[in-house]
Amino acid sequence: MFVDKANIHVEAGDGGNGVVSFHREKYVAAGGPDGGDGGRGGSVVLQVDRHLSTLMDFRYKRKYVAERGADGSGKQRSGKSGADLIIKVPNGTVVRDRETNAVIRDMTGDEPFVLAKGGNGGWGNKHFATPTRQAPRFAKSGLPGESRDVVLELKLLADVGLVGFPNVGKSTLLSVVSKAHPKIADYHFTTLFPNLGMVYIDEGESFVMADIPGIIEGASDGAGLGHDFLRHIDRCRLIIHVVDASGSEGRDPIEDFITINEELRRYSPELASRPQLVAANKIDIADGGESLAAFREYIAAQGLTLYEISAAAHMNVRTLMQAASAHLRELPPIIEYEPEYVAPVVLPASPEDTIITQDDDIWSLEGKWLERLVSNTNFTDNESRGHFNRMLDTSGIFARLEEMGIEEGDTVSVYNLEFEWES
User: Fold this and answer.
1) For the chain, what percent of residues have pLDDT higher than 70?
2) Judgement on whether residues 200 and 143 belong to the same structural domain of the protein
3) CA distances from residue 391 to 351, 374, 394 in whole angstroms, order as listed
4) Which residue in 142, 210, 314, 422 could disulfide with 158, CB within 3.0 to 4.6 Å?
5) Whole-number mean pLDDT of the chain?
6) Greatest alpha-carbon span in the chain
7) Plot region of 208 (φ>0 → left; ψ -120 to 50 → alpha; else → beta)
8) Between 250 and 112, where is the model more confident?
């Protein structure tokens, strides 16, 4: 099975927590705080693997989570950073944001890309020692890693794309001019996934050609296999349009040519405007009658060059490939998709974002800023509790509670912690 599109969820590792620790050594009095920092969380990294040709691996696994950073420890020892998670993708994979469909990255080279960055580790209590606070009993927790929902979409990296109805000889042509070995048989949809082949013209002169299967009438709307595979022509600089000139299946070459081009136009007008060479295949078994003559005249009227070939008999095939190579020398390089995705601006958590709700004499507080403050507070230590109260006071939360009418003896609930309000 060929898989060329996949939805995945990635999560970078959270940073490790800083630790509260004090130096303990014989004959050393008041050794002071020595809590180490937490390690950085592992990132999720995309890496091109040129041995991969499909996104099949992502069909069965959709969630990827990097390693969390280790917590710090005493003696100022920092926690170990989490290992990066390397995800290997085929060359030509376009990464899009699932929500906006904007391009995040076009994986067309060997340079790795950090898709989700790991969270920073939290500080140990050694960072919070001051002349007036010589024994801090609190540390910072690690920051969460980034998470993303993305779409992986494989768009083959080929200079030339072979298009045409099923069974016109595209796979045979590819097998004759390259070392590719596509499955070939005398029935429709023999080819169920795109095949790539390297075509050698001369020393130092070659190009990549792709056999794109499944384009029929209605392909741009999802008929047949075309909807799945039309995307693979997006990068092709040149299109070779193959038609069956023999009429062996009672088809009209002109009608077929018009139909396929209409499907390309409906899928992408820009794609339909790409340069085309027209190959009338199976010329060795064509009767040379009115149908072929009319096709010659029609192609000439379109300002295109017709190459009458027989892939099976190797007739004029090299001439066609040489013409393709000559055209490629005049065309711009393969398309690479520029990033479109703009990451949303995430403002730092603020005390103003704290939500206060009242239920009789119970006042509940919640918010990202408050949640982080709670996680960094050691409520068994008087100094740490004092720091917590000062932060609520200076941030204006106490003033908000008073403005809203809190009374002495009411309960303040903060993330499963409850306090009695005192005026």
Assistant:
1) 89
2) no
3) 9, 11, 5
4) 210
5) 85
6) 108
7) beta
8) 112
Q: What is the mean pLDDT of residues 77-100?
A: 94
Q: 229 and 127 in one domain?
A: no
CATH of the domain at 358: 3.30.300.350
Q: Are residues 203 and 315 in the same domain?
A: yes
Q: What H or E segment, with its residue span, contains residue 270?
A: helix 269-272
Task: Please list, residue by residue across 182-217, b when 16 or more beta carbons sit within 10 angstroms of its beta carbon and e when fewer do.
Answer: bebeeeeeebebbbbbebebeeeebbbbbbbbbbbb
Would residue 336 count as lying in a domain?
Answer: no
Of residues 19, 41, 13, 74, the one with CA closest to residue 376: 19
Own/partner long-range contacts of 56-61 (Cβ < 8 Å, ≥24 apart): 56/1, 56/2, 56/3, 58/3, 58/6, 58/8, 58/152, 59/1, 59/3, 59/6, 61/8
Instruction: Confirm if 34 and 96 have CB atoms less than 8 A apart.
Output: no
Judge whether 195 lies within some domain.
Answer: yes
Q: Residue 99 belongs to what domain range?
A: 1-154
Read off the pLDDT of residues 278-292 as tens digits, 9 standing for 90 and up.
999 999 887 767 788
Query: Domains in the chain: how many in total?
Result: 3
CA distance 302 to 215: 22
Tens of pLDDT, residue by residue over 99-125, are: 999 999 999 888 999 999 999 999 898
Q: Which of 139, 154, 169 is the last residue of a domain?
A: 154
Beta bridge partners of 276: 239
Query: How far apart are the C-alpha atoms of 65 and 145, rounded to whole Å?
Result: 10
* Domain presence at residue 130: yes
Residue 144: which of 65, 45, 35, 77 has the closest Cα?
65
Sign of CA dihedral 110, 111, 115, 117: positive
- How many residues does the structure list for the chain? 423
User: Residue 203 is part of a domain; what is its CATH number?
Assistant: 3.40.50.300
DSSP conformation class of 246: S
Q: In angstroms, rounded to a whole number, what is the distance separating the alpha carbons of residues 136 and 134? A: 6
Binned at pLDDT 50, 70 and 90, residue 185 comes out as: very low
Q: What SS3 class is residue 278?
A: strand
Residue 334 lies in a domain: no
Q: What is the CA radius of gyration of the chain?
A: 33
